[in-house]
Design a protein that fits this description.
By secondary structure, the chain is an alpha/beta fold. Helix content is 32%, strand content 28%. The protein folds into 2 domains: 265 residues, 3-Layer(aba) Sandwich (Aminopeptidase), CATH 3.40.630; 135 residues, Glucose Oxidase, domain 1, CATH 3.50.30. α1 crosses α11.
Length: 419
């Protein structure tokens, strides 16, 4: 594992590259060019993603005193009437039943991230619109950016569209303190179909070609973030693994997938699994790398497979002298669609210590990343991958234990009871 080469490639990827954007395409081409520099070939597989062009967005208190606040709009959450939508305001501070009883026909400010459970409750409460917020009251300023958010298809396809806005925490506090009676929200957007990409490269097995090990890492970022830690680091570690195996003649076939639009709901890995469903039986393992390179932190292995793999990884770490915390659990990343298809997975990551790393914000830059830390994680993944690629017999059963199946179903909101 060459940490310096990984670090050099990571610097090339240090720019905002949201799923479906021209910047994501530029990043995909950087990965393609790197594969070509190894004298190998890769391909881009495109898939459709929902997108929107926001033309106008406003939030205004109209009673008792008029005041406007800077906001962004949730893409793909629909458009209000051109003149906007007026409704009573309500601060929905908790997810208690009584809070939602008071929310009907109102524009509500909610705490926290807009997740599946909260959105379902808002839809059932028949709110007119919702507002979320993020930031720090001590750091927010006029010059600080406002996060851009998206209403994921999983939500609006199941529960319908609710107009959504997002604002800074400092402004949200001011809004609640002003105790408004009525607000006007305006959100006008053109919803379009965009294009995102997976980059795929393969090394054909020298002996057992019909057993495939898939390596995944996402290369997209969230808006405003250069995505160095999450997950440029995993992408460049994957590239070094590809470089290593490209001239090693592994027994099994190794397929490397740099996934697009992971930050928008694992869209790249979901698209790959859906497109190649007839070939999934040949995949015996998914090795995913998500977040890495941070100087101050620790390496972890999350085993989303039979408990025997957990024991194997723990044994390997002790044998080789790796500092590695291993446990069995699910991991919110591109491995999940493969696990859902019955494919065992393991997720390698380097978690930053408190205050030593930034994720999903504008501070995710090269400053807290080092080549040696990339190399540390990469060496662990490489050692494990060599053993799997060249084992006389695949030591991991191709099955997912029931406790993991239950967690995956809950994570993917499968088997959700309908009213």
């Amino acid at each position: 594992m060459n940490g310096k080469k990984a670090y050099s490639l990571l610097k090339k990827l240090e720019f905002v590259r949201t799923g479906g954007s021209k910047e994501e395409l530029a990043a995909a081409n950087i990965l393609l060019d790197e594969v070509k520099s190894i004298k190998k070939e890769a391909k881009i597989e495109t898939f459709e993603v929902q997108d929107s062009i926001i033309k106008d967005v406003k939030l205004e208190v109209i009673s008792p005193k008029s005041k406007a606040y800077p906001v962004t709009g949730y893409s793909c959450s629909g458009s209000t009437p051109k003149e906007g939508l007026e409704a009573p305001f309500y601060y929905l501070q908790a997810s208690q039943e009584i809070d939602f009883l008071k929310a009907k026909d109102k524009v509500v400010l909610v705490n926290g991230y807009m997740n599946y459970d909260l959105y379902e409750k808002l839809a059932k409460a028949q709110v007119k619109g919702f507002i979320t917020y993020s930031g720090d009251i001590m750091r927010d300023s006029k010059s600080s950016y406002i996060d851009e958010r998206e209403l994921r298809a999983q939500l609006h396809q199941k529960f319908g569209k609710i107009f959504g806005l997002h604002m800074k925490t400092k402004d949200a506090m001011d809004l609640v303190k002003s105790n408004p009676d009525k607000v006007r929200i305006k959100l006008l957007q053109d919803e379009v179909v965009g294009e995102s990409r997976n980059v795929v490269a393969e090394i054909l097995g020298s002996e057992i070609q019909d057993e495939v090990i898939v390596f995944t890492a996402h290369y997209d970022s969230v808006p405003f973030s250069k995505g160095v830690y999450d997950n440029g680091a995993g992408s460049v570690i994957l590239m070094e693994l590809y470089r290593h195996f490209s001239n090693k003649n592994p027994k099994r076939t190794l397929r490397f997938i740099w996934c697009g639009s992971e930050e928008r709901g694992l869209l790249g890995s979901k698209a790959y699994v859906a497109k190649h469903i007839e070939q999934l039986d040949k995949i015996v393992l998914c090795i995913n790398v998500d977040v890495g390179g941070v100087v101050l932190g620790k390496d972890i292995a999350m085993v989303t497979a039979d408990n025997s793999l957990l024991n194997y990884v723990d044994y390997m770490a002790k044998e080789k002298g790796f500092s590695l915390e291993a446990r069995q659990d699910i991991y919110s990343s591109d491995c999940m669609p493969f696990v859902d298809a019955g494919i065992p997975a393991i997720n390698f990551a380097r978690f930053g210590s408190d205050g030593a790393a930034h994720i999903h914000d504008s501070y995710d830059k090269m400053g807290f990343i080092s080549s040696s830390s990339l190399e540390t994680t990469g060496n662990i993944v490489e050692e494990f991958a060599k053993r799997m690629a060249n084992a006389y017999m695949m030591p991991i059963p191709r099955k997912i234990p029931e406790n993991i199946v239950d967690k995956v179903n809950k994570y993917l909101k499968k088997n959700v009871k309908k009213d």
